Amino acid sequence: MAGPALKSKGDSDEDCAAKxxxxxxxxxxxxxxxxAAWARRMRRRRKKWFNIEAICAASAAENxxxxxxxxxxxxxxxxxxxxxxxxxxAKHPGKYQVTYCxxxxxxxxxxxxxxxxxxxxxxxxxxxxxxxQKDAEALMLATVEAEAQYQLNFRNNLSNTSxxxxx
Length: 167
Known about the structure:
Layout: H1 13-18, H2 29-48, H3 52-66, E1 75-79, E2 82-88, E3 96-102, E4 105-112, H4 115-124, E5 129-130, H5 133-165
Antiparallel strand pairs: 1-2, 1-5, 2-3, 3-4
Helix pairs in contact: 2-3, 3-4
């Protein structure tokens, strides 16, 4: 898949990152994943040589992918170290939350002003593979079950420890 246009002469990094391309907001999940992988390769290239075109191209690609997400949408992105769930925040109405998870349950969360900002940060952090709805629902259910098991084990260990501490 070809990446987005590179920085034009005279464009600032912000101008380059903000460029929009008509029709890209309708990318399929497969196309989003392909573009996110391309951006990852561009970011890796940047690490080898300080390459402003690679930085700009990666940022533009991540902006394009982030633009594919609709308000109030719930999405699950995967990385080699876990997954994250992007959803409207219950703690802060009108904002969006990224909840980070792994095989043992929920780890932490971050709040963002827009779904686009939440997706962009997740992409930068390496959560690049967006799951189809069916797979996302199964993974979210498995995460809730893992968290419930973790909490149960924690309570059992806590009660066993408190009994052993009594004289």
